[in-house]
Amino acid sequence: PISSRRRHVGNRTNPNPNNCIGVFGLSLYTTDRELREVFSRYGPLAGINVVYDQRTGRSRGFAFVYFENVEDSKEAKERANGMELDGRRIRVDYSITKRPHTPTPGIYMGRPTTRVHSSHYHDSHSDRYDDGDFTYRRSTSPCYSRYRSRSRSYTPR
DNA sequence: GTTGAGCGTT
After folding, report:
1. Residue A77 is inside which H or E element, if any?
2. Nucleotides in chain B with any atom closer than 7 Å to protein CB
């Protein structure tokens, strides 16, 4: 019943209830401290991440807020969506992409493919990390390049 | 303190 509303953003899947919400349309001057003040009203936060442009250092106008409880995330999405913050009408949705709290734990392996070849991944060189959006490879094994193409076709689900 | 739709690292 809520499917056709997001056609203008492409074939992106509809966000499902999640601990992490994305906040878009922010003022470039809204800080994480400010976001914390607002969103901690809905429940305890596990973290906040304003996305900055790597070159200019300025905010890109969106952020991600992690709640400890999904129920609080739901309430935040419903109540904070459309709210005005620093003169801008913000949009709040469940996050689609997910990032781990820790930085990239290994070598970036590209986006997961739909194909699965699980029989290849039982050796000690394929210790792999996946956050559901990207796939990383953990070790610095010299055999890395031999396994690269296989690893790229790995997908968790 | 330019622009404004956006799903991600400083």
Report:
1. helix A70-80
2. 1-10
